Amino acid sequence: MIITVCHAPLEILVRNLFTRAGSLAAVAMLAFTVAQPAQATQHREGAQRTAATEPAYFEMTDITQSKFIVKLVQEREIQHARDLVSGATNDEPHVIGRLKKYPASYNPGWSFHYDPETVHFFNHAIEVCDATLPYVEEHLDEAGGPFLPGLIFCPWTSEIVREVPAP
């Protein structure tokens, strides 16, 4: 009995250590996954992108039915969003990217926006970057720490609804 009581805290400590190590590894992998394509795309498309590539703006919603405007600047992402809106594809319907913790003129009513250079689409993502739009707004001061580490935001219920005119 004494041995079991003495080992229980050690087992809990070891379990917590592995859980935290796994969480940190997942966050690191997520940050690497989001950063790498964005950097590769910037490098690859940076030379190809010209003044003719105009940003495009899309309305996004989530399970709360809140409306949020996403600015896209990468040709591939713009085309993918247009394909989602038209119904040409339903692959990778959700939005992921790095947040900026200040308002954008094209997205009134929100204190944050996506960094347009980091926006991509996904089918599945890890839970640590999932939240609803109102929850992010309410807890924006906590974003970037344990909540939305690296400011990566991937609402699992996000959906591009329509393209909107440039402001």
Q: Brief overview, please?
A:
With 167 residues, this protein is α+β, with helices and mostly antiparallel strands. It has helices at residues 2-46, 75-86, 133-138, and strands at residues 56-61, 67-72, 94-100, 113-114, 120-122, 143-144, 147-149, 152-153, 159-164. Helix content is 38%, strand content 22%.
Walk me through what this model shows.
This protein is an alpha+beta fold and 167 residues long. Helices cover 38% and strands 22% of the residues. The protein has one domain. It has helices spanning 2-46, 75-86, 133-138; strands spanning 56-61, 67-72, 94-100, 113-114, 120-122, 143-144, 147-149, 152-153, 159-164. The strands form three sheets. Strands 3, 4, 5 and 8 form a four-stranded antiparallel β-sheet that branches. Strands 2-1-9 form a three-stranded antiparallel β-sheet, with helices on one face. It is globular and about 35 Å long.
Describe the protein's topology.
Elements (H helix, E strand, L loop, with lengths): L1 H45 L9 E6 L5 E6 L2 H12 L7 E7 L12 E2 L5 E3 L10 H6 L4 E2 L2 E3 L2 E2 L5 E6 L3
Parallel strand pairs: 6-7
Antiparallel strand pairs: 1-2, 1-9, 3-4, 3-5, 3-8
